[in-house]
Specification:
By secondary structure, this protein is mainly beta. The chain has 2 domains: 316 residues, Glycosyl hydrolase domain, family 43 (Tachylectin-2, Chain A, 5 Propeller); 88 residues, Sandwich (Immunoglobulin-like), CATH 2.60.40. The two termini are 14 Å apart.
Length: 418
């Protein structure tokens, strides 16, 4: 299965060239919470939850997709809003996706995760057809503008299996990686837990053999259940912001964080969890929704509510690049040797550039045949890296990766051993 870590925020692979992360765990909840996204009583979006937010660099604005409820089923669908500052939002007047007329998503569509890639939008969403909300499954849709969506004809793309996820799968977080996608999703049986899957195309998914990947809390602990894990990457570390419940069926008690340094196969929970708890407007529950990096800080969008229905909130945390790292920009192009080497299934490729330019890294076999484009985009001056996860069909052997930036070109050899 082909996947590499080249995070696009949007989402959501993020590289902060040798950045020192200062106070990244100090979260400040926005004083204007909840955000102005919910509708009036009786409207299709009276209650709003599970936001998915990206920063669209083409339009220089934040864009949000959120789950809406009228208070009954079928639900109102998935709504859309945009913002220039991430705090004040303008809503699209109607749902941009609604439940199907029949079939697996005929009662509910929601919990969207959206990526903007090469000028188009891709969405993974949760659906169900039973009033019990189970079994849940995950569908896929595409859009040219983030508003007009076409559901994939072969939906759902991920359905529950036996064991820990037999009751349903959903509430997914998808990361774009060069050559494919990485998903973290909630599986439910006796407990709600978090699993991992990879895909070359966003449609055909392969589950990790050792799922679930995020361990449950102990009996009586705040995250005995964990779900709605939303993931971002900073350098070589994945950060997951997830919802915890002290007991099954007790709606989101708090939001915690966990980190992974092996592409999400194993996770370490933050020792000072939880990071966001219930407050005034969210006295009934609070749940994770979306996390992104913009304007030198992390933006965590989450939902909560009480008797007034679901509302969406915002908390931020600074990510500060040390002055020393900013002033010590590289003086020349350098392509580093991948590490580890030999490798299987993943290896880190690093390079440095003295000036911003369009840069590519391509993979070739020993005969000079191009196998894969690993990196393709504009990079500022600084230090960069990407984590390459090999295609499972690629045989063992010697391969070459080539960096090109303007007139500069450099080639290194790597060895894949299966």
């Amino acid at each position: 299965m082909k996947t590499f870590f080249k995070l696009c925020l949007l989402i959501t692979f993020l590289f902060l060239s040798n950045a020192e992360l200062v106070a990244q765990y100090t979260w400040t909840e926005y004083a204007g919470n909840p955000l102005n996204v919910h509708g009036t009583p009786g409207s299709w979006d009276w209650s709003v939850v599970v936001p998915s937010v990206i920063f669209n660099s083409d339009s220089n604005r934040f864009e949000m997709w959120y789950t809406s409820f009228t208070g009954s089923f079928p639900n109102g669908g998935i709504g859309f809003a945009y913002s220039g500052d991430g705090m004040n939002w303008t809503k699209h007047p109607s749902a941009v996706m609604t439940p199907g007329a029949t079939g697996w998503d005929s009662l509910f569509v929601g919990a969207a995760c959206v990526i903007k890639e090469s000028g188009s939008y891709k969405m993974w969403y949760t659906g169900w057809k039973s009033i019990t909300r189970l079994p849940r499954s995950i569908g896929y849709a595409t859009s040219p503008d983030g508003i007009n969506w076409t559901k994939y004809s072969g939906n759902p793309v991920l359905s529950p299996q036996t064991g820990w996820e037999s009751g349903g799968v959903g509430y997914q977080s998808v990361i774009k990686v060069t050559g494919g996608y990485l998903m973290f999703y909630t599986g439910e049986a006796a407990n709600a837990l978090t699993g991992r899957a990879i895909s070359p195309d966003g449609i055909t998914w392969e589950r990790y053999s050792n799922n679930p990947v995020l361990p449950a809390g102990g009996i009586g602990e705040w995250d005995r259940n964990n779900y709605l894990g939303k993931v971002i990457a900073i350098e070589d570390t994945l950060y997951m912001y997830y919802t915890g419940e002290s007991n099954p069926g007790i709606s989101g008690s708090a939001i915690g964080m966990a980190t992974s340094n092996d592409t999400g196969k194993t996770w370490n929970k933050y020792i000072n969890n939880p990071i966001i708890t219930r407050g005034t407007w969210n006295s009934g529950w609070t749940e994770s929704g979306s996390v992104l990096f913009s304007q030198d800080k992390l933006w965590l969008y989450y939902d909560g509510g009480s008797t007034s229905g679901g509302r969406i909130g915002l908390a931020t945390a600074p990510v500060i690049v040390s002055v020393e790292d900013e002033t010590k920009l590289p003086k020349e192009f350098v392509l580093m040797q991948n590490y580890p080497n030999p490798f299987n299934p993943s290896t880190k490729i690093s390079w440095q550039t003295p000036a911003g330019s369009h840069q590519t890294i391509k993979l070739y076999d020993v005969l000079g045949k191009e196998i894969e484009t690993i990196v393709d985009g504009y990079y500022e001056a600084g230090y960069h890296s990407t984590l390459y996860i090999v295609n499972s069909t690629l045989p063992s052997g010697v391969y070459f990766y080539q960096l090109k930036a303007g007139e500069f070109m450099s080639v290194k050899k790597m060895l894949l051993i299966k």
